[in-house]
């Protein structure tokens, strides 16, 4: 049997090393935050973030975290198979019991099953995906090409972007940054999260970035604002 962890179904894809702030307003997830804060120091203060498939997500008002439309039980079919744990880094409790939290993506997992649990929040059986080899020579060769393609893409999309003010040296970290920052569909982001290794992710990103840069270059020749034609930014 795999590990049992609490999971938070969201409309976003979290990648290892990336920051995810959340506003926690729903009572069952307030309980999750309280349980994590109360856990001992030698236990990981983390929960799984899994992305809801299209049609199940509902945008919550006022910038709150997204959630299912009702309190019916979550099923595996509603979720993408691969998620990432979010480690608590900062917790601010508001006077009315809500929380503002800051988390950082930590480790990837595959959802095996939603488990029956006495907790008010969702829990799942998961299997951990293997850590990626950081010294892989192929990814080391691909990283500069992916970075160059990412720079070209950002220059076309938003020339004043500050995303690459500090470029990560690690190819794996770079691959996660590109995946989280580029304006991709949820399916594309999930494909990148589930990639078996950094080299595969970088190859996929090169293909996607070259495609997007080509589309943006054509759009710039059309006499209408770029914002009217570019791929819509995900609200996640």
TrEMBL record:
SMART domains (UniProt xref): LON (SM00464)
SUPFAM superfamilies named in the record: PUA domain-like (SSF88697)
InterPro entries hit by this protein: Lon_prtase_N, Lon_prtase_N_sf, PUA-like_sf
Pfam families: LON_substr_bdg (PF02190)
Positions of the Lon N-terminal domain: 2-213
Source superkingdom: Bacteria
Name of protein: Lon N-terminal domain-containing protein
Species of the source: Actinoplanes friuliensis DSM 7358
